[in-house]
Amino acid sequence: MHKKDFSYYVTRYFTNYLDREAGFSPNTIKSYRDTFILFFRYIELFRICKINKLNMDILSADNVNDFLNWIEKERQCTVSSRNQRLAALKSFCIYVIRENPEKSDICQQVLGIRAKKATQKSIGYLNIEAISYLLKMPDKTSDRGIRDLALLALLYETGCRVQEIIDLKIGDISFRIPNTVALTGKGNKIRVVPISQQVSEIIKNYLSISTRHNFEENIFVNRLGNPLSRSGVAYILNKYGDMARKNRLDLYPYKLHPHILRHSKAMHLLENNVNLIYIRDFLGHSSVTTTEIYARCNPELKRKYIEEASNFITETVQDYSKTEKNDLLEWLRKNI
Questions:
Q1: Which Pfam families does this one have (predicted)?
Q2: Known catalytic residue: 191?
């Protein structure tokens, strides 16, 4: 029988559990793998243990806390990155406990480490005028411009994550009334969001000039026919952002990033009196407490949605599950 040592659990965690059982996305798995590479580098750098003699003892609370402080101070990682590394190690510990309860003592040390509280940053977003002007930048007479317009319009219209639009297949779009897009989000969860007739026509125009018709093919590809990368999407957005900024610096005070279209869509939904529960589902958030960060960006929106959320709970709470009730109550506790 194979001895179940530290390397055994690490191997099984990455080759079997994360993908096949937990259903984590490739990006999450890569992030978790990077965490372990960094952790092993730290262990070796400070001679805590030789790399060929790794054991469960390296997961002591002191080692993990020192590792987290090291990546934050020495490697200049953000608090958010620090917390992501901790989350990866905690996930591994939960897996080990499930596989071998005898290892729970040392794993519980890691699970007891609290995430570091990060300073809440204001969310940058574009107003409606800025979105409209940005979508006028691509050249609608060229194949590349038609593709780029379709990409930007769909990023904003659906409020999707960059990886979601990279992974989007031709068969994920339905041109029946109502027009919809099926997005595969974190944890391989699929959500269906509506798109307007105008954006639907933009997508149809793009697909009409495409040589790809297989429903399983990616919609957005580069000149080599390969799916766009995250940096490719960022390049396209910044290209047109820079063009727009030359004429309207007032609308684009800073460099654009792909997530800004997602933020903008969320803020515009809030400004149009869409409740947080719907926006949560639209964006694919697991909890409304994640969605509420958008209400904090605007004092007037914050005041309005605190009032509306309060009325929503007292008047229609019976239509929602216990989890949803708790989410809304938690939102109120944080903001009132």
A1: Phage_int_SAM_1, Phage_integrase
A2: no
259 is catalytic: yes
| Three-state DSSP state, 72 | helix
State how far the Cα of 108 lies from the Cα of 100, in Å rounded to an integer: 13
From residue 72, give the alpha-carbon distance in Å to each of 18, 68, 75, 83.
Answer: 26, 6, 6, 10
Q: Cα(202)–Cα(159) distance, rounded to whole angstroms?
A: 16
The residue annotated as part of the active site, out of 82, 262, 263, 280, is: 262
pLDDT, tens digit only, all 336 positions of the chain: 345 788 999 999 999 999 888 878 788 899 999 999 999 999 999 988 888 888 999 999 999 999 999 999 999 998 989 999 999 999 999 999 999 999 899 999 999 999 998 766 667 889 999 999 999 999 999 999 999 999 999 999 999 999 999 999 999 999 988 899 999 987 788 999 999 999 999 999 999 998 777 899 999 999 888 999 999 999 999 999 999 999 999 999 788 888 899 999 988 988 888 888 888 888 888 776 667 777 666 655 555 544 554 454 444 444 546 665 566 556 555 544
Q: Which of 161, 245, 263, 280 is catalytic?
A: 161
Instruction: Say whether 294 is catalytic.
Output: yes
- CATH code of 129-259, in short, is 1.10.443.10
The pTM of the full predicted model, rounded to 2 decimals, is 0.66
Q: Which fold has domain 6-111?
A: DNA polymerase; domain 1 (1.10.150)
